[in-house]
Amino acid sequence: MTATDTTAAELEAQIASYADRLFQTGLATLEAFTISLGRELGLYQHLTDAAGVSPGELAARAGIAERYAREWLEQQASAGLIDVIDGSAGADERRYALPAAGQECLLDPDSLASVGPLIDLVPAVVRVFPTALVDAFHTGRGVPYADYALHDAQGDFNRPAFLNLLASEWLPAIDGVTERLTGDARAAEIGCGEGWAAIAVAKAWPDVQVDGFDNDEASIAAARKHAVEAGVSDRVRFEVVDVTRELADRVVPASYDLVMAFEMIHDLARPVEALATMQRLGKADATFLVADEKVAPEFRAPSDDPVERLLYAASVLHCLPVGMADQPSAGTGTVMRPATLTAYARAAGFSAVEVLPIDHDFLRFYQLVA
């Protein structure tokens, strides 16, 4: 049906549907901010008792004003995010509690159901919107990663998968990897962020030395702290290094048995150079593993995949601007399709790229053949 074939009644229905879509989007955005506010203030951890808390008790425990406590509790209950223990009580006496499902999703950082860090990305975008982000769209330049100050949220978002799946499912799915990670084996991760993947490898294979490289100083500082807390700092080292340029003097080329890159190639202005660094780091028979976003092989619109929609939104607001901060830039964006990564890998000197049979909702896994 063309636009000229649309009747007035059909157009009115389309307008109503479109308006409802925008309304639901706005509602979800505003509620996301209230969740992020609760996480920032540490309110949810005071709601774990089945007996619940009153506004006054929450205010006293969290160190906030009682009137704000009451309004936030009522809003969260209205949104169905927390439970009301006694709905017949007065406004100041009502008690509220976070259900078990909410505790798993919002308070357990190691749970595969931990979704709170995704919500924490919302205020990170606000730090650069509108000024820096709008300017980037006008000028074609980018926004530096550090300006978003989202390294903790990003690290927390990836943490459950790395700690629960990397050593138990992902690496064992690659022929020969687990057998090799013994004795004096060495592993490297480029773009390591807050270090959870490197830490997971070290915890699973107690003889392996692991090095992580990232150019974000705040991320490396957090990674070193996490390694100490995990008890692996004697075997895991994190260094501030731009892997798209020359490596630090202490990094010995061709010395690693496993070289990894997780969800970072698409963020880089110079992805080919980073992949070339991976090849330089690895031994002749090393395993080269890249995991990046699980998007459709080709563009399609409208998309029926909520993950792809999420990734496109992340690209517009964060990943593409970060990748454009250095010029010249490949300008990849979050939605890096398999053909794009394959082209980058071949330009970096790899002979082939194989998609691994590892199932994950967000990630596609590639083995690069040197």
Features:
single chain; 370 residues; alpha/beta; Arc Repressor Mutant, subunit A; Rossmann fold; 2 domains; two-stranded antiparallel sheet; 15 helices; 9 strands; globular
**What is the rounded distance between the termini?**
51 Å
Helix coverage percent? 40-55%
Total individual domains: 2
Strand arrangement within the widest β-sheet reads 5-4-3-6-7-9-8
Examine the coordinates and then state which fold CATH places here, giving the name of the CATH topology of the largest domain.
Answer: Rossmann fold
Unreliable residue stretches: none
**Number of alpha- plus pi-helical segments:** 15
Backbone shape: globular
Largest sheet: 7 strands, mixed
The fraction of residues in strands falls at 5-15%
Mean pLDDT over all positions: 95
Tally the beta strands: 9
In terms of structural class, how would the helical and strand content be classed? Answer: alpha/beta
Reading off the top of the CATH hierarchy, the class of the largest domain is best stated as Alpha Beta
